[in-house]
């Protein structure tokens, strides 16, 4: 609220307060995502990384879109519109798609003998349980 007040009082024609607001929005959304991931018990770290990467991609590119649109509105008299925010959208989007492919190919759940899918944690627990049974029989 203080930043909005400073912006309105000293530079009412330039709404620079949008930039820190969107920056805080990115941090807030990442924290909310962390809470949701923790509350739902998403275990595999690779899955968490994909989720956080996607959320960061969406909200950082939203900020870049706002910056591009706002600076275009200020500079429209000098030169025509230049959509520079599309570069990070496409290149980061391509990297994100590759990240999804790698996740699905290498880190997704594996099929077991029984025909059910088990995560790495479930397999480790099962292996440890078998060791404990084996040791208790001795």
From TrEMBL:
Membrane-spanning residues: 14-38, 50-70, 82-107
Species per Swiss-Prot/TrEMBL record: marine sediment metagenome
2TM domain mapped to chain residues: 54-118
Record has Membrane as a keyword: yes
rRNA-binding keyword on record: no
InterPro entries: 2TM_dom (IPR025698)
UniProt entry keywords in alphabetical sequence: Membrane, Transmembrane, Transmembrane helix
Protein name per UniProt: 2TM domain-containing protein
């Amino acid at each position: 609220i203080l930043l909005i007040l400073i912006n309105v009082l000293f530079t009412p024609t330039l709404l620079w307060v949008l930039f820190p607001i969107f920056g805080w929005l990115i941090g807030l959304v990442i924290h909310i995502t962390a809470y949701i991931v923790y509350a739902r018990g998403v275990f595999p770290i690779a899955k968490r990384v994909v989720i956080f990467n996607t959320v960061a991609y969406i909200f950082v590119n939203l900020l870049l879109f706002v910056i591009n649109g706002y600076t275009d509105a200020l500079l429209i008299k000098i030169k025509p519109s230049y959509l520079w925010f599309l570069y990070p959208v496409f290149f980061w989007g391509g990297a994100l798609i590759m990240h999804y492919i790698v996740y699905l190919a290498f880190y997704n759940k594996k099929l077991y003998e029984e025909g059910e899918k088990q995560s790495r944690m479930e397999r480790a627990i099962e292996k440890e349980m078998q060791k404990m049974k084996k040791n208790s029989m001795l």
